[in-house]
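Weekly structure sync - notes
Attendees: PM, LS, DV (DV joined late)
Agenda: review two folding runs queued last week.

Item 1: First target. Sequence and structure tokens pasted below for the record.
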Amino acid sequence: MTTTSPSVRLVSDLVTHIPEFRGAYESHVFSQGGVLPHVFFWDVVQNCVRSFLGEDPAAADWRRTLDFLEEQSARGELGVDEVIVTSFLNDLPYPHEPGYAIVQELGPVMAARFVRIRPGG
């Protein structure tokens, strides 16, 4: 019996809760030969920022994505936190980049983690 890691389960749950990520997920699995959560989350960040900026009407709604990730962050599960902090929060735009204002929309748990990993923004 194989056990799914928390980080792979995070990706699966994200795709289940926000079906707009299904195409990116299927493309990712095909090209990577499986689920690599940290790699997949690069696409999640890009999608979320494009949605926030209004650049892609087909993108998953950024609010739903942030709400889902906030809920997952609040659980405090080790593999989940690692992916969200390292491969989502850390990859959000920097102050000089378009979309940086999305940082002001983070929920309290993710906002606190964001400040810890990127105190200068």
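Item 2: Second target, run right after the first with the same settings.
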Amino acid sequence: MPQQLWTSVDDYFNGLLVEEDDALRAVAAHSGSSHLPEHQVTPNQGKLLHLLARIQGARTILEIGTLGGYSTVWLARALPADGR
């Protein structure tokens, strides 16, 4: 499948299911302005990580290789108030 089709599918689901807030947009923008490789997760993938951590009832999360921190924000938001 061509990359453009994958991108269109991602854009569709992102628009339908995911609302990025100012913090997530700022992390993504900072990654871009810092010339980091464009390997961060997409918004819908971030939301999936968030959902999986919540379903699991995670109280501690360790992410290795955070790049710009976009997925870290999603995962951190899945933790309870006393999570780490």
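Discussion on item 2: The mean pLDDT is 89.
Action: LS to circulate a short write-up before next sync.
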